Amino acid sequence: MSDGLASFGGLDLNDTRRSAAGLWRDGVRDAPDGWAVSGFDPGVLVPLFGLAVRDGLRLVGLTYRWDRDGEGRVVALPDAQAGDLVERGLPAELAEMDEPDLERLGDTIALGDALEGDGSPLSHLMASLAIRELEAFGQRGHGRGWLDELVVESEDAGRPLLPPGGAMPDPPPWPAWEAEPGADGPWEPVVAIDDDSVAVRFHTVLGRGGWALVRYVDRFARPGSYAFESATAVVAEGGSGFVP
Length: 244
Hints:
single chain; alpha+beta; 2 domains; seven-stranded antiparallel beta sheet; three-stranded antiparallel beta sheet; 4 helices; 32% strand; globular
């Protein structure tokens, strides 16, 4: 990361994430078993993060249900192809796959390439979160992953200030954690941006199975381009977690 960092603490990012998840949960509550095209428009989640879907494109959600568990996918397609998919539903041969071949749905576009924003450092941080929220669309029960992580938004005396769990148990106090050698802050989200590239770094707390502090570093090709490559690493562990 560059020395010239823009820091973003205290934005209530977890509240924005909860709002997004609450919207789609209501929208897919009655999803059928197996793979199906959702009647919920995941594109309505994007403005919550200060971004927009590019003109001429549309996001379509797919859901997969088995008993009380579930997962999903979000694809970006040209408007006409998206409308046709929503109207006709998932082709039978794809609905029967364990993992549907999304490229057979049409001219699919990477989610990051389907988004637009003002190119600011904050817009890249929000893209990092928005794309993960879209990728978590439809998750429930044992299918949950990203939804069980909480973004760390502040620090205290050089230590991460761990967010309250909300519907989940609170993380253990920081002195109970074991940090990896060289693990240091800043712990709140930061963005390094120049003419040629953008790097976003943030941390999350994960409690499912075992407490972990996870570092994400997302690298974007240039300002205003919202596709990224990501690297993750566990930088501290806090003992036994919880089983939902």
